[in-house]
Amino acid sequence: MLAVVDLRTRTGKRDYAILLLLVTYGLRGREVAALTFDDIDWRNERIRIRERKAGHSTAYPLSSILGQAIVDMQGRKVRFFTVKTLVTHLLEMTEQRQLERTLRQLERQDLLILDEFGYVPFSKTAAELLFEVVIRAYERQSLAVTTNLPFES
């Protein structure tokens, strides 16, 4: 069903985001209709669903694909990568002497979403490249980093 949505149009982008809400979180139509941008906590990567059954609200982790769809709907420049894919791409661009050009392209995005952080160990060079992306984004653009790994104390 998601594959048939025309993402080239504003309406298509909106419909795609709505369908993701329905499919990802199992929401009802009225719950989606009641959502506002204030229900999205970008910093903590959570989405709050108000007025669920019995009047309670529920907070869910904001999936990276839904976050990207919502931002795309607003006409922002967004790039989504798994961390492994990004690091592999950066290493390839280094070999092709295109690293600086690639980093500048990433800097032009309004939001970078890095998913699956911490799943794959990296070489020192790969870790340094990832760090370069993070420090270039610092205080200049939004950066969302997600993981499903538990935090340990």
Which key terms come to mind for this protein?
single chain, Rossmann fold, three-stranded parallel beta sheet, alpha/beta, three-stranded antiparallel beta sheet, 153 residues
Description:
By secondary structure, this protein is α/β, with parallel strands linked by helices. It folds into 2 domains: 2-62, no CATH class; 78-145, P-loop containing nucleotide triphosphate hydrolases (Rossmann fold, 3-Layer(aba) Sandwich), CATH 3.40.50.300. It has 6 helices and 6 strands, in the order ααβββαβααβαβ. The chain has helices spanning 10-25, 29-33, 64-73, 83-95, 99-107, 124-137; strands at residues 40-41, 46-49, 58-61, 78-82, 111-115, 142-145. The longest helix is centred in the N-terminal third of the chain and has 16 residues, at 10-25.
Roughly how many Å apart are the termini? 42 Å
The CATH homologous superfamily of the largest domain is termed P-loop containing nucleotide triphosphate hydrolases
- Please provide the count of β strands: 6
Please identify the structural class as seen in this structure: alpha/beta
How many domains make up the coordinates? 2
CATH class category label of the largest domain: Alpha Beta
- For the residues shown, what is the average pLDDT? 83
CATH architecture of the largest domain: 3-Layer(aba) Sandwich
Write the H/E string, N to C. HHEEEHEHHEHE
**How much helix, percentage-wise, in residues?**
40-55%
Q: Note the main sheet.
A: 3 strands, antiparallel
